[in-house]
UniProtKB/TrEMBL annotation:
<dbReference type="InterPro" id="IPR012338">
    <property type="entry name" value="Beta-lactam/transpept-like"/>
</dbReference>
<dbReference type="InterPro" id="IPR001466">
    <property type="entry name" value="Beta-lactam-related"/>
</dbReference>
<dbReference type="Pfam" id="PF00144">
    <property type="entry name" value="Beta-lactamase"/>
</dbReference>
<protein>
    <recommendedName>
        <fullName>Beta-lactamase-related domain-containing protein</fullName>
    </recommendedName>
</protein>
<feature type="domain" description="Beta-lactamase-related">
    <location>
        <begin position="49"/>
        <end position="344"/>
    </location>
</feature>
<dbReference type="InterPro" id="IPR050789">
    <property type="entry name" value="Diverse_Enzym_Activities"/>
</dbReference>
Amino acid sequence: MWKLMDTKKCDKIFNQAIKSKQVHEFVLFVENSNGDFSYKNEYGDKSIDSPLLMASITKMFTTTCILILLEQDKLSLDDKVSRFVDKKKLSELHMYNGQEYSFDLTISSLLFQTSGLPDIFEERKDSLKKRVLQEDFNINFDEIIKLTKQLKPHFAPDAIKRAYYADVNFEILGEIIETITASSLEDAFQSFIFKPLGLEKTYLPQNEHDFIPSIYYKERYISRPKFIKSSRASGGGISTARELMIFLKAFFRGKFFKKEVFHQLNKYKKLQTSMYPIQYGGGYMRIPLNGLSTVFVGKGELVGHSGSTGSFAFYYPHKDLFLVGDVNQFANPALPIRLAMRIALSIK
């Protein structure tokens, strides 16, 4: 039985968050599986039905398509990427210690972030992130591959205990989905996810008429529709808190795929130090709540994803809670994760 005290604790965390100079708008939506506990709060121009940038939460949608194709026997996690992607594009993508590993990459390497490939969004002096802050621009798959080849991988594919978060892994998965389905990624999402769940406000933007929310970077309010349209499989999705809740419950409660298929994803590795305490499984994050980051006072874990623009969608199995929200702040990607952790720990 959920208590009134639990909602008061959520109120307290919410009200503390909106006092931050970085938080100009905030939406929070928390429910348990059957909906007998439901909490929402809204601030600024965000409501649970307002469009929000999913950013990297989109990776869970890409993961969903991969698992559905796996159930349809159209791919295996052990399949080589070269089975689906042009070998000329892959050539010299992964050169490590003088050896080429490009053709050793598997779907599993991409899904679990164990490819070792570098991340052009965060790395380099002229990283995509720095460029996004200055201007809006398009970037296609071939350009993403070309830029990735200019950086050094961090380790050989599937090295023991190694994982490195890089958007390129999911951009390649998007290409694989398009190859197998002989359709656009947008159509695959629509067929596999949006239509079955009845999601009418969740989409991958394709043209100039598709609405794309603007983003706060500290005090600046910036619009980057071209780049968001380019991010597609790794971070280009738009949704609402209400519809993200529907998707999140479907993802973790077996509505898309059998338990034995989903079970293949729960093998976690620590990501690079800069992303502590996040671990990565197959297409989603795991955040332990019983470790150093919570001074060992928590129990269980959060599983799901956050986005660099302040979005988050996590399941807390220990309390059977689903947490969805958005602070729409590009300057502090750790903020939504800290908020989700605090909310999970506050509810008894």
